[in-house]
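Hey,
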Amino acid sequence: MGAGKRGVLTAAVTVVCAVTVLAVPGTAFAAPTPPPDPGTTASVTVVTSDVELEAVRKKLDKLYRAAAKATDEYNAAEEKARQQTAQVVRLARKIVEGREKLDDLKDRAGAAAAAQYRGGGLPPEARLVLSDDPQDFLDGAGRVRQEQHATKGLLGEMTRTQRDLEEYAEDAREQMRKLEAGRKVKAAAQKRVERQIEAAEKLEAELEQEEKERLARLERQAAARAQATWLSSGVLDELTSKATAQGREAVAYATAQIGKPYQWGAEGPNTFDCSGLTSQAWLAAGKTIPRTSQMQWQHLKRVDVGDMRPGDLIIYWADASHVGMYVGDGVMVHAPRPGRTVTLAGAGSMPILGVVRPDPAAE
């Protein structure tokens, strides 16, 4: 690659450093090769070194990790929006039912008032004086007391129903406020995802095909080194746990998706992001688990790496921004990042934060 090309590559990396919050300050890049002396032959080609490509690989890794973290934020906001929308629907139904009940109570109260009016509305003492039969009066007085108690009961129920309606309405307004706030969080996360992916794609686009192939080789080598280090720790030496019935179903679903493209925010059936794959795999096995890798880390039972079994979820990076499903023999299945497909990889090919188990009660 010539000096101009190398300069473009270096400039692109510099721009990416500025836009990503996860960029490492002070990353060194080789200086552009000076233009050839006019007396030299024009057929000389300067190739981007593996050192430069390794710097690009690390930068891409940070960009895609930033995108993965923002994707988790987007997915969490989306999940909250679903829950809040369902709550608003439930409250709306309660409000409708409450209004119907209140209308019925008002009709009944009106009917009671009309009956009392037709009875003349006389006090009991007057009715006793005017009555020809004291027993009739006493019977009537008993009915009046019953009607009065019923009327008081109606009024009390109307008051309670009205109060319930006001509470439902306030709850609905609060849920709508949360929905609006969540919409803003979701939109901001979406912009961060798109910005990080756009920067990564722009950086990759600056590479020639041969450089892309070498970059892919460097990625595989880095993953292989990490996996070899992980295996050399002896972590699998005592690993004898077998998958549960549900675990086997989850693994079968996840591995059946191999080859399908990664797409941030996707839960299948044709595309997946990392936690979309794991949550849908366990849903297919009859178990609902949290949607995002961070929520899976927070809410599912944690187990020691040495005790993991197929179907368990391996959470990666200190911010829990990636997840894969262990399938056995030191291998996991995951949806890596934009531009990649669901694939098998070494379980230790990335820094492991921990392991969680969706079905801890199963034998």
